[in-house]
Queue: 2 jobs
Job 1
Amino acid sequence: MPQHRRPMFRGAGPGTDAGHAQGAVRRALRGRQRVAQERTGLMGGSEALSVYAILLGTLAAIAAGLTGSFALMKRITLAGDVISHIALPGIGLAFLFGFNPVLGGATTLLVGTVVIAKLEERTGLTTDAMIGVVFAASLAIGALVTPNQDLAEALFGNLRPVSPLGLTLGLGATALVIGTLWWNRHRMILHLFSSELATTLGINGRRLNLIFMLLFGVTVLLGLQFLGALLASALIMIPPTIGRRLTHRLSHFMAISA
């Protein structure tokens, strides 16, 4: 008569196979969660959300208000809405290939800002016209490369916990924007009201315009992770508009905007 062999190891059999399968599923889920956290670079708990995220959001709003006051004087506040869309291809590629979407958005945003400034310089067209050209191209590319499941987050942002590294980078970017604008405020204001006089005094208007556009892009980038590509420009447009209605003094206007 045939003899049934006992399993070499206790627990071997269908039940053990099911246990192994469940364990593999749990490990895979934990791995995906860890990869998602590392991809966004925003690991942290509720305490980090309540402290780091609120602090970074407040500083980003201050930098945006100060940048927006100069943008309002240059009459390009609506450019913030368009420039924020330039970051969409980078955010989409970041989601697609699994790296930090803020870094992806920063890359395309800064490249697009430089392209706008250079096209304006070489073609002689206005800033708004150049922004419109780059905006149309970037929006089309962003819609094509952004995965459908990540499109809502790319457009509207997501208030996630911010890591100490993310806070440090945000503080550095905010300090760069505020410090550079404050250091160049007199030259920028003079160039806005009389470019001929500024040129006579040795002020390089093209360099000032490029610096401002880069700061403009960094400011939009600060608001991207909280408000997304669609609403980040609100930080630049709304505070200066309110400040302009409340006062006619330049110093008060900039203080209210910030």
Note: The chain has one domain: 44-257.
Job 2
Amino acid sequence: METNPLNQGAMTVSGAGIGVVSRKMIRERAAEIGLINGHPASEVTKPEWDQAKRELTGGPSVGPKTALLQSAPESDRWNPVPGSTGHSAPESGSEEEDAEGLGVAARLVAEGVNEAAHDQMLQAARAAQKTDESSP
């Protein structure tokens, strides 16, 4: 089974292309997330490691239970007694779009926005840590 290359992980971090994701990159990203969450970068937790890995490698953004619930059709989720299921129409999509219908350009824009938000949170956390260290 072929996979869509657009469903892969991050293409850039802080504006630079990242290439192949290494354990060191995941460790650094997890330390940044830990700092944003308010504890020393040396005390990375499993959820932070998992989040960093998901962000950089393109893993699922939700847990297996949530993914299962979200995979059910909308009509089955709200209808207590499902009626006719109807029929499904063939899906027409471009090979250059991912599962969410985003092309490469849209994906890069979304990734840039997410990375900018991460950088802002990281800078705020570092500034707060610096202020705490300089306070008597």
Note: The CA atoms of residues 37 and 125 lie 8 Å apart.
